[in-house]
Amino acid sequence: MTWRANRLDDLPPYLFVEIDRKKREAIAAGRDVIDFGVGDPDQPTPAFIVERMAEAIRRPGNHRYALGTGGIEFRNTVADFFVHRFGVKLDPKTEVVALLGSKEGIGHLPTAVVNPGETVLIPDPGYPVYTGGTIFAGGKCHTMPLRESSGWLPVLSDIPAEVYRSTKLMFLNYPNNPTTACAPLSFFEEAVALARKHNFLIAQDAAYSEVFFDSDHPPPSILQIEGAKGVAIEFHSLSKTFNMTGWRLGFAVGNAEALAALAKVKNNMDSGVFGAVQETGVEALGGIRRPEIISHIGPDGTYRRRRDVLVAGLRQAGWSVTSPQATFYVWASCPGGLDSMTVASRILDKADVVVIPGVGFGQCGEGYVRFALTVDEARTAKAVERIARLKW
Ligand SMILES: Cc1ncc(COP(=O)(O)O)c(C=O)c1O
């Protein structure tokens, strides 16, 4: 007898294990490790949000189960945000669901909408939860390669008609982790048209929609496309926008039937987002234009300055890097035509710098490494100096 279900063996291997082990060894040996690995903001949650929590936590009404799809105040705030940011009207009662972080909703979605054996289209490279959630639901993963030559967008016309015929769900993620690419509205238009033709649901993961550097081109929502609500939902997260990864707050919006199915799964799995955390979400989304937020994620903010230091430094060292327009990552081509595991290991062994090998996000991530811009400018400059000394 084994106390482990067979389905766990179907999950892809966790390829960061080796880098994790080396990182821990280096730190234990007292080496000065500079860590661009995890996509977790290094700055604290802004004070106005923390203050709201300090009040909210004293309210006894918040101490009870927060059952359901989120309090109406939170859902109304999401609907207001969507009108102001994307020009899209949502019905807060049926088209908004609060999540325990967007990861939770993404992970549960296939269980809510995919029958065993049905196909789920998954971007490669991509956020691993799309695959994990699909496997747990008994769905069949079909990867959509993302390549630099097509702007890191899947070539939807390359997917065979018979694959579309068995497809129930397609995951998209723009702005994209790990490639940092943004999708134009024309791409979303093509995806929505295909979903309507072949009858599948699109789940567009917009966890990084608010971290962008070109204020003239804010990343769009797929729900801006006419008819998208018939075939699409979109995931949003407060984690990266407001330095709130530990608080666990996100939301899904869009197609009411798919959201009701997701809510049904959630009702059987969890008991809602802590009411006090929902209140902080109201405060945060209402304050998204405040200087303390813009100075961090905005066009002249902290991440942009770090990006510029890192990109300029890597280029000077002979690396080929596209400067990202959104997300807080830099996706760099491996020097010397080496594979990503070799490059990440060598950078850690010889420069005490942690980066993530692209192959950890899927086979098509091979040949690239990802840096998270969660290290301050001075240490980013120091890391670049160390990397520049390496011979490839
Ligand atoms: C592409 C993508 N989607 C979703 C998430 C999940 O974010 P959270 O669960 O904190 O909202 C992440 C986190 O790293 C991510 O990179």
Key traits:
single chain, 392 residues, alpha/beta, Aspartate Aminotransferase, domain 2, 2 domains, 7-stranded mixed beta sheet, 3-stranded antiparallel beta sheet, 13 helices, globular, binds pyridoxal-5'-phosphate
Please give a quick description of this structure.
The chain has 392 residues and is α/β, with parallel strands linked by helices.
Plain-language structure description:
There is one protein chain. The protein has 392 residues and is an alpha/beta fold. It folds into 2 domains: 6-44 and 295-388, Aspartate Aminotransferase, domain 1 (Alpha-Beta Complex); 48-290, Type I PLP-dependent aspartate aminotransferase-like (Major domain) (Aspartate Aminotransferase, domain 2, 3-Layer(aba) Sandwich). The protein has helices spanning 17-28, 47-56, 72-86, 102-113, 129-136, 161-166, 185-198, 256-267, 275-286, 291-297, 302-316, 340-351, 377-388, and strands at 34-35, 96-99, 119-124, 140-145, 167-173, 201-205, 232-237, 250-254, 329-333, 353-354, 356-357, 368-372. The strands form 3 sheets. A 7-stranded mixed beta sheet has the order 2-8-7-6-5-3-4, sandwiched between helices. It is globular.
